[in-house]
Amino acid sequence: MSGEKKMRAKKEQVKGKAKEAMGRTVGNERLTAEGRAEQAKGDARQAKEKIKDVLKD
Question: Fewest C-beta in 10 Å: which of 2, 13, 35, 38?
Answer without folding.
Answer: 2
